Every structure is written in structure tokens, then in C-alpha cells.
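Hi there. Long-time user, first ticket. I'm pasting a complex I've been working with (about 845 residues overall). I'd like to know whether the download I got is complete or cut off, because the file seemed smaller than I expected. Thanks.
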Amino acid sequence: MHKDNRIKLLFLLPAVLWVLCFTIFPLIYSVRLSFFNVKIGSPDEFIGLRNYVHLFQDQRARSSALITLIFVCCGVAIQMTLGMALALLFNRPLRLRGILRTVMTMPLFATPIAVGFLFFTIFYEEGGLINGLLHLNVPWLSNPYWALASITIVDIWQWTPFCFLIFLAVLQGIPAHYYEAATLETNKGWSVFRFITLPILQPTIILVLLLRITEAFKVFDIPFTLTTGGPGTATQVLTMYAYRVGMRFFNYGYSSAISVFLFILVMVVIMTLFKKIRQTYQ
Amino acid sequence: MYTETKVTLVVIVIVLVALAVFLTRGCRPGEGTRNGSGKAGYQHLKWHDDGGVDLITFEDAEVIHLSKDELGTMFGRGKKPFTGKRIAVTVNNSGPKGGISGPLYRLRPAWEELTGAKLDIVEVPLAEQLNKTITDLRLGVGQFDGFMEGAWYMGEYITPGFIRPIDDYIPDKRFPQWDPNWLPPSLRNIHTWEGKWYGTLNDSDGQVLYWRNDILTDPEWRSKYKAETGKDMPFPTKTWQDVIEIARYFNGKNWDDNDPDTDTGIVMHFKVNEQGMFHFMSLSAPFVAMGGDKVDRGTNNYWFDPETMEPLIAQPGHVRALEVLYRLSRYGPRAQAAWDLGTAWDWFLRGKSIFVFSWGDVGALVQDTSRSKIRGKLGASVLPGSYEVYDMNNKRWVKLPQPNVVGNTTGGSWHGVISSRSENPEVVYSFYALMATKPVSLWNVNRGWTGVDPGASIHFLPPQGTADLRGFVDAGWNESDLRFYLKAYHDNFFADTMLPYLRINGAEEYWRALDQNLSETMIGRLSPKEALTRTAKEWDEITNRRGRAAQLKQYQRSIGYGR
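Hi, the file is complete. Here it is re-exported in full:
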């Protein structure tokens, strides 16, 4: 092999090792664990598909999967819609646009754990910020439906700016003469959006959707700090259930099966979206 | 070009090695927690001519005097028997001024001066404590020498032999002196396993009933109660039904003039995956637990059938108790379904609730006027009973002439145990024993913020114990509050019948299943019967997965069945 190639490989090696050690190995190890009954300090016992069979019989796992799906669908849909609306608004000449844009993006930089605790005080029912200021009596955290709505609202608050930023960047890259030409045909804003803006944005929308769905499926910190999965199991998402089963009850095999299931679920969604992107570009 | 690349590679390697060394050094347990390690500009020991010593606490610079006899022969002026040794002890992550961990920080500098050893306090979140320590022990890493454990960890530690008995150390005059006989049998039980001592005296947890004594003894409120209900106020409360009656009457009225808002009858904490299940355990005890000299399915038993490991949690006694708890919860704030312990306590301290049943911390926090508006207005007693108890042997309800009052050791009773992997067990024990001496233990109990609650005879006032009223009053206690408080705890821990404690492998998992179903009941998704039936089913699954035979054997050992 040529010396230069060897040097290139040498430089690549740390990155490859990193991916092998911290991405590929844990993934393979997790899949392996899911077929075993694991007790730390004792030999692992191979149990075949029993963890997966249990997963589909486990009422708590089913309930967590449903909660996760509701959270992802509602949260991501609202984030995308709001992000788009804000991007369209900020794409126009606006006073204090720069300042407002900066303020808008601030939630992105907040640590989710801190956000969870912050919203705990905001949603506090007896004189918290919202109920206290607006003289409301909303059971934000003590009612199962409101609790799920609360964690979704926090996620929307934190991640709408992400959608907004990316949409805005693309919108600002659309040449002005497209719109100038369009105004010769129509003066309806909706038609311009429908036939000019949206098609240009479509690949970006799918990309943002893909990123947000992937992240939303993995949500953990916000429900963990805000509701600890309750009341009851109303906000116990799959990641939290896997954490509890593995890290608190030492059932690592079953916990791995839940994680693998979640991984497959996310992969299916991603593959579908990738297929859509490919079709769009073709 | 090639030489430049080599130089770059060498630099990268050096940086990586330096980073690795830095990270490895930074990973020493407790290295980041040396902020309570003394050297605050003063010495932490002051020796007396008679061989006694004043321990001077970290930051507060408060003085705790130990006589020569209490100190043990190993220690003395100029003696530092453990010089060069270093130990690491895990504890809940409450910080240098928080419950349970705080006293370790306060005493560490004095102990280090006394012994010459170093103590690393390793704070671990409650939710991760068992996992972290068990993983360390099972993998044989042994980075911790001791653990300030909750009593329900005992089964996880004992069976594999992860912790070491201390029977040989306790009578050893070389160590600081404390007496296990100070503890009542109820608390001795959770510090020992099959007669062997593993834990030292520290915290004593149990739940008692607290109430607003100023309101419930106010003649005006009593006459209003009679006028509205046609009955005398059932106070002092004897049964949970009495508590419900009073809570129902006061709920929704503005009986406290601290604010213009309405107040509640009771407050509890049902935030899921926290400590709500402890409310159920304590309240259900009189409907389930029957005392006596033996241990069998229906006597001195609560959790499982000691012959089959069948869960008993859905038995009629337990179900009725959950119905009572649910009814009682209707007279508290709606938000309590999502409240943790601290939030519920705060509600009571702000004068918003007539009743709360909880741990000893409440009595102590009431004295802190920066948080509490009810100092001097507190009443307390052992938890109420029930005139009917379900006999699980004969499967029938038994009516009693007097309420079945059952004490409890609900909670962690956080105390030190020594890892069997520790190379310095004597060093660890010397620290625990110092914390257990009468002067240090009393210092902790006098100051409520320490999270160390009373339970031993040295903590109670005469005639029940030997403590001095002045110690409490000097620490800021209101005398009336204190007398209620100490009597309640004495009656609780010395009760004839006690709620058996669950100390087997997976105790936490069993409790979490109960907790989630309890929470589902509190938000109206499951009826009490459904919740407990589902709990029993989940307990069976847990038992099967962990191995029924092993679980059964351990359960029998933990409750003393067949002995």
C-alpha cells in the first residue's frame, strides 16, 4: 500500500474505532442481551425469544408504546406546523426581526433536564405560573391527559425553534425572482405558497420530519423530570420504561428487548422517509 | 511532509494519553466531594484533660462532646490509628446540608483528625443507589467500602454475602461506643439478619399522624363541627374513619388565616415512582397485620404467603385499606396525585392541611420558621387503627373491641453497612460507630435538617428514654410540638404489633409495581380491587422471573418464618 494511503487510514482509524466501540458494539451487544436472561455477576442464560414474547404480552410495554406514538405524532406535527408558520412570518420584512429570531431560538440551547424542572414550577397547579397568573384551575400534572399534553407542550416549546431555523434558512435561499414571476400569474398568497414555496421546501420538510421523529421517539429527560412517567403510567414513554426495567430492576435482557423494538420502530419510520426523499429527488 | 505527519501523530498520542490520565485520576470515587473535608481555618477536635474530646462540626462549628469511654480506646490525643487509609462511603445525594448525607459532611473533618484516615463521601441519587452499588459488588470492582443503605436493600446485599456482620465490632472497646439495646425490637429487626448485626444506629424511619392541634382543640371549631354534623368531633382520632370524618369536614373551608384561600383536610404525596406506596403500606397495616408470638400466613405477615410465595396484596384487608386511602385522598388537594414528598410537606408546613401522615422529618421541619407557619401548633400520634382486621389464616374479618393499632418502620431507616469487599472494615466501622454514639446521634436528632429521625431510647424523654429536653429546645424545638412528636414515635416503634418489612431481592421492584397501580387508583383509572389484583399478578411475574424457590427461601428468612 502507498505510504500516503496508509497515513490516511491511520487518521481514519480513531473515528472507525470510535464508531465500532461506541455505536456498533453496544448495538450488537444490546441485540445479544435481548435473547438472554441477564444477571450481573452470573452467567447469562439463553432464553431465545422469550423477552420478545413477553414484550408483546406486557400491558405496560404496550401502554408505553402507545403513549410514545401519541407523543411523537402530536408533538412533531405541531412543531413542524408552528416552525413553518414562524419561518414564513420571519421571512418577511419585520421590525426587530434579528432580536426576535435570536429570542425564538433560545429554547434550543436549554438543557432538557433543566427545562423539565423549570416547567414543573410553571405547571405547578396550586399557584404555579400559568394557573396563578391566568387564574386557571388546570390539572396540568395530576390528570393523565393533561400530563401527556404537558410533556408534549414542553417538547414543542423546545424543538419548534429547530424546525423554524431550518425552514427559515431554506426560505431565505429561494430566489426572489421566483415570487416576482409568480405574482404575474396570481396575487393569492396561498397559491404562491402551495405551488412555489412548498415544493421547494419539500425535501427539507422530510429531512426535518425525519430528524424530529427520530429524536422524539428517544425522549426521556422531559417526562423523567417533569412527571416521572405519571400520574399512573400516563407519561411513561418506552425509553423510560426500558430504563426502569433495566437500571432499577436489573432485568437487562428484557430492557434490551424493549430498546431493540424501539430501534426497529424508528428504523422503519426512517426507511420510509428516506424512500420518500429518494423519490422526491428522482 | 512525512516527518510532519509523524510529529502530528506523536502530539495527538501525547494529548490522548494526558487526557486518559486526567480522566482516570478524576474518576476516583468521591474525589469531587472534598468540599466538606475540613481545613476551614480551625481544628475539628479539642481534647480535654480527662481524655474526652469535643468534636467540632464542619462549617457550623458546633461542639459535640464525647467522654473518653464513649470515644473508645483506639482514639486519643496524638493517636491516629488509621493514618494513610482511605475509604469511600455511598449516600443519598442530598449535599453537605441535606438529610442523611449532611451529617457525614459535618462529622468528616473531626473523624479524619481523629483517625488519620480519609473519607470520600460518594453521593448517589436515590433512584440509582441500589443499581450502582449492586453492579459494583456483583462485578467485584469494590470501589466502595460502605453504604448508607435503605433497609429494603438488605436482602439484595445479604444473600450473596456483599455486606459484613459487625457483631464482633460492637462490643469492642477500641471503637466508639453505642448500644444496640437502645433500639426497640422493631428497629433492631431491620438492622439485623437472622440475628446478626449488619447496620449501625443512625436514622429511624416510620410514619405517624400529624395534625393541626390548634384547630382540632379549638372549642369554636369543635362546636361548629357538632352543629354541622350533629356529632362530636372524633378527636383524638382512634381509627382511619375518624380521620376521614374530620378531613371531610375541614376540606374546602378556610380554617387557617394564613391566606384567603380554602384549605384541605389532608395532604399526601402520590407522585408515581417516588414514595406514594409508603402511604398505602402504613395505612393498610391495621387492616391486615395481626400480632402474636408466631409467624405464619396471617400472623406477623403482610406481603407473601410464607409457604408458597403467593402475593397477599390483593387480600380483602389490603383492598379495604386502599378503599380507605382513596376516600381519604378525596379530602386533599387534587394536585397531590403528582406531588412528591417535599411538595406535600410544604403544603402542611404552610398551614394548608389539617392532617399529614409521614416521617419524622415533618416534626422537625415544622420548627423551621423560615419554611413553617405552624410551629407550636402541631399534634402527633401513632397512626390510627381499625376495629376490623382481616384474618388471612381463616379468611374472615375479625371484629375487635379496641382498634388494631400497628406500628411501622416504613421508609429507609438509612444506616451504614460495610462492604465485604472493603479492605478497611475497621476504618469504616469506626466512622459509623462515631455517628452512633449517644452525643452524636442526639446532635443529629435534635437538628431536624439532618434527616436523622428518633427511634432509640436515647432519643426519647424520660420516662420512655434518657434524652434531655434542653438539647431539643436549644436546637429550636417548641416544647409542646416536641412532646407530641416524641410520644408518637415512641408509641409507633414500641407498638405491640408491627408492620413486617419487605427485605428480599427485588423489594424495590415489588414496591414499584404497587406504586404504579396505586397511582392509577388515585387518578381514577383503576378501582382499588383492580389495582391490587394487577399488583398481585405483577408480583407473581417478578417472583417467577427471579426464581420462586430462592425468593421464598429468602422471604422466610427475612420474616423469621419457621424459627
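A couple of notes from our side: Chain A has one domain: 56-281. The radius of gyration of chain A is 23 Å.
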